[in-house]
Amino acid sequence: MQMGFGLYQQQTLKLVMTPELRQAITILQYSAVDLLEFLHEQANENPVLDLSEKQKEMLYGEAEKKIDSDKRIDIDRDEYIKARATGDETYYSRGSSSAGTNEYDPLDFVASGGVTLESHLLEQVAMLKHLTQIELRIVKYLIGNLNESGYLVISIEEVSEILGVKVQEAEEILWLLQSLDPVGVGARTLSECLLLQIKEEPEENVLAAAVVEDYLEDLGAKRYQKIAATLKITVQEVQQIADYVRTLNPRPAAIFAKGTPRYITPDVTVEKVQGEYIVIVNDGTTPNLSINRFYQQMLQKDEQDPAYRYIQDKLHSALWLIKSIEQRRMTLYKVTQAIVEEQKAFFERGITGLKPMTLRDIAEKVGMHESTISRATSNKYVQTPRGLFELKYFFATGLSRVDGGEASSVLTIKEKIKSMVEKEDRKKPLSDQKITDILVKEGIDISRRTVAKYREELNIDSSSKRKRF
Questions:
Q1: Within-domain flag for 222
Q2: 7 domain-assigned
């Protein structure tokens, strides 16, 4: 065999990740909100692409919209949903041109909270006319050092040193701050916060104050016997104190906490029509994509135009984007339809009907790769007759049954454990072993350690801590 260096021509087949394919994959995993932002970015970069906002309409609102003073359009609800599912616009678009004048957006009616903790406290301070300039300066400085929960994050000694005032004077102004609304604001510790609320009650619970002041950690750990023995009271009294303390607010300023609300727009809607579940892809938030006619006409002119190649490239990108959006819509429809068919028992009976399902099950059903199913269900939400769920919610692992029957999903088992605990006798709570025995009798192959794990994930205390005396 002759070996050596040389130049050869050879044909090979290999998968190349083109920019267009990468864009299609990225679009598939976008949620409805992210997709809208992405399309606006593309429209700014590509002059050939035109975006036109779709007319806003309520799902069943067409039958209620007034076309003129004495004329209405009557639309059957079931037929309307089926038309939306099949994409038949000839039915549900009747009268839409006239109805566009009465747009409705539920987010327009969401109130925005403009009151902050600082403004709320300063408003109360402004009513205290007896304060001197120095006292006013101290209280404003203290208000400025409160965290989102309403706790003071600086010591009185530091306040005294920074403002150049006596420690006793700063302490007195702190007491003044702690007398303002909300009750418990200005506290330095959790114990102090709860004590302020206890003392504000018309009839101060002296015993509860003593427990909170000296035995708060033991109370949180439910060491009731230890507290009862120390204070020489009954365990039942300690338990009553614990119930009372739970009614207090450990974060008095939480209602003023700032935070950007996150609104979830469902990507898919599932409606039950005449016993049949219909899948509707929510493309109402996605603007209509079209090609600018001006640039289309320019491509029909001389190819020697310097802008011809640029416009041609942008046109290709725009067409591919439109194709990717449609492919995303069809993929999302097929995947959701397959999920609904596989989890029909869930839609009929709730979480007890949820069965184990993997990405491979759906991939084989729709003829796609598992990675495609994963991207199609990532960050996507579906509105169902049983509420709003993430599509990933329906992919649950399961445990096999003793009798070899259909496996039960982890979510279903957790729901069973939760239900058992809610119905148990609080004086004789169910232990993990007892719950395990009950589940095994129902045919579920599960160990005590697994039950303990699921109980902890449900934030349920152990039987010793759930016991009522």
A1: yes
A2: no
CATH of the domain at 460: 1.10.10.60
Element (H, E) at 383: strand 381-384
Higher pLDDT, 336 or 1: 336
Whole-angstrom distance, CA of residue 460 vs CA of residue 466: 8
Question: What is the rounded CA–CA span in Å between residue 467 and residue 430?
Answer: 9
Q: For residue 462, give its domain range.
A: 398-466
Please identify, among 208, 224, 256, the residue that sits at the C-terminal boundary of a domain: 256
Q: Which pTM does this prediction carry?
A: 0.65
CA dihedral in degrees (295, 297, 298, 304; nearest 10)?
140
Q: Tell whether 10 is covered by a domain.
A: no
In a domain, 411, yes or no: yes
Query: CB under 8 Å to 141, separation ≥6 — which residues?
Result: 159, 162, 163
Distance CA 326, CA 440 (A): 48
Instruction: Read off the pLDDT of residues 206-231 as tens digits, 9 standing for 90 and up.
Output: 899 999 999 999 998 889 999 999 98
CA distances from 447 to 18, 414, 438 (A): 49, 13, 11
Q: How many CB atoms lie within 10 A of CB 98?
A: 14
Please give the tally of structural domains in the chain.
Answer: 2
Could you report the per-residue pLDDT of 356-389, keeping only the tens digit for each?
888 999 999 999 989 999 989 988 999 999 899 9
